[in-house]
Structures are given as structure tokens and as C-alpha cells.
Write a structure and sequence with these properties.
The protein is mainly alpha-helical. The protein is built from 12 helices and 6 strands. A hairpin with a 2-residue loop joins β1 and β2.
Amino acid sequence: MPGPRTRRTPRLRLGTTSARTQPILDDPPVLPPVVVAIGGGFASALAGALLVGAVVLIGWWGAVSVPVPTMLATIGGVWLLGNGGPLTTAGLRITLVPLGLMLVFGLLCATTGAFAHSQALRARPRPPKGRDQVGLSLLVAAELAVGYAVAAGAVALLVSTPLTVVLPAAAVGFVGGLAGVWWQSGRPLPRSVLFRAAARGALAGLLALALLSAVALAVALVQGEPRIATLEQELGLDAGGTVVWALVGLLYLPNLIAWTASWLLGAGFTLGEGSIVAPWATQLGLLPSVPVLGALPADGAGGMQAWLVAGAVAGLVAGVAAVAAFARSSAEPEPVVGIVSGVLAGVLAGVGFVAGALLSRGGLGVDRFALVGPRLPEALIGLATYTFAGAVGAVVAWAWLSRRVR
């Protein structure tokens, strides 16, 4: 009887060189990258207008007697105001830009900019590097700014606003789009250890100033709560008006923090012609019925120079943070270069403060309140304070690190 036959199945052995893999490329974008970027600018403008429209509609429900064309013109005017343009309502010309609303618009542009950059990368056979990467980032941001500026021009024509608003709107689209591209590309920093440490120190110093300013503003709001409540009662707002007014306060919160920062650094701010609010003196005139102004010190108040220490602390934080970042990033840190990074961090933080002070200025009319906000050129005091305090913080931090190493 024949026995069973056994079949030996050959085994497949894979070595390190037997299996070859090839990179799977993403599908190319359906639309050209330039169309995606310009369309992203339009989409960001439309999304911002819808957000503004939702807030305006809340207030309009309590005042339905206002004609619909007037309500739509208000939506367009508020959108332009958030992009650096003027708003004319009830015979009042407002040029005080709500920085909170501008930040929201910038965030929308950053989102679309990141998407447009990803589509531009998919359209290329290989990832760009070096100068090509920088050029691609700038190109995507510029294309998005074009779409955003065209949308701003269309809104300006509809609400009979000068087309000069196109320039600041294009700047909002470009900066926001560039921020989104930077984030999507992996948040690269300068290759130089010196500038990388200085940038981190400057960011730390600005965050410290913003935090200290928020604390000082909260103290002022608590102390002025009775006056604020009285002003709110005089306005006689309904439920919808209260919600809108609260949202307006949130959108102008970055402006108030910038004003408080100018106060902490000794530059102070003004609320119209002939007024000044500074730690050493307060001179007030006729003020508009804005509840938050109830947090201002009383007319003639002074003797609050102790708050100036907070501004110096922010500069010290910038210098210390820069030296710490430089010491972590460099294998053999040199004392002179480390201290220079702290000084440079103070300079960058001071420039950032001055830029924020400029953006937070504006007008609430054309006569007495044609200019409100941080005082210029007094705001340059903040730049000097940041630079000097950053240098002191860098020297102290380096001395402490050197002693710890020894």
C-alpha cells in the first residue's frame, strides 16, 4: 500500500533587500494653487462678514425699526473697521480698530493660508527647501492677500467707503496668511542661535507685559465697578443690546490691554484733546458714556509710580528668557553673545510694544475724541525700558548660570 505523499511548500524569505518600497505621492490638487490661495482670501472675508453679521443681527432684533439696508451697511462698515477702515454711523466717524476683531480675521486668514500652502506643496514634485520654501510661503500669503483685498474693495464700494481701506485689509490678509503658512510648515525659526534665542525672549517679555497689564486692568475694573454700573444703567440697554455691548467689550479688550501696558511703561494714554492718564498724573475732560471708562482713575489722581515696576519686570523676563534659550541651544555658549541675545530680545519686545501701541490708537469722532490711545512719541519710553531691562536681565541671568556651572 503506497504511503501518503508529503508536499513541501517552499517558504518565501524576505530579506532587507528583497522588499523595495516606493514613496506614495499625494494626489495632485484639483484646482491650481493660485486659485486656492485667492479663493481662500475670499472665503476668509466671507466668513468674517458672516460673524460680524451675526453680532449685528442680535442688536438689530431689538431695533427692528432700523431699515434693512442700514443694517447691512452697518455689517459692512464694522467688517471694514476690523480691517483698519473707518466706520461712519449716526454721523459719528470711528477709526478705533477693535484689535480683537482684527485678530479673529487674521486667524481666519491663517486657516485658509495653511490650507493653501498644503495644496501648493502637493502641486510640486518635491518639497521646497531653503530659499524656495521662503519664496513659496511669501507667494501663497501674497495671493491670499490679493483675494482678501479684492473683497475689501467690493465691500468699500457697497458702503461708500474710500478705497484706501484696501491697503490695511491686504496687510491683514498677508500677515494672517503668512502666519498660517509658518504654522503649517512646522513653525521654523531662524537658524542663528542668537536670533532664535532673542525671538523667544522677546515673546516671553511681551507675554509677561500682557499678563501684568491684564492684572492691572482687572484691578482698575474692580475698583471702578460702581461707576461702571452707573454708566450701564444710564444706557438703558435691553437683553440684545447687553449681549452686543459685552461682545464689543471683548473685541476691544486687546486695545485696553495695550493702553494699560502703555500706562505701566510710563508713556500713558490719552482720551481726547487735553486729557492724559499716566501713573504720576491724571487729567480728564468730558468723556463719552462708555461703561469701561468708569475704571479710569479720578481726575487729578497721581502717585501710582509703583506700577512702573511691572514694566521693568517684563523687560527683565525678556532678557532672562533669551539667555536661558541661548544657553540651552548652544553647545559652548559665549558670554558676550548670550548677553547680546538678551539685549536684542529687549529691543524686539520694545518694537513689538510700540507696534501694538500704534495699532491700538484711533478716533471716536472728528473733534474732541479724534485721537484716543497710547501717547506718541512717549510710547518710545517703552522701547527704552525694554532694552535697558533686557540688558540687565541678561547680565544677571548669565552671571547666575556661570556661577551655577562653576
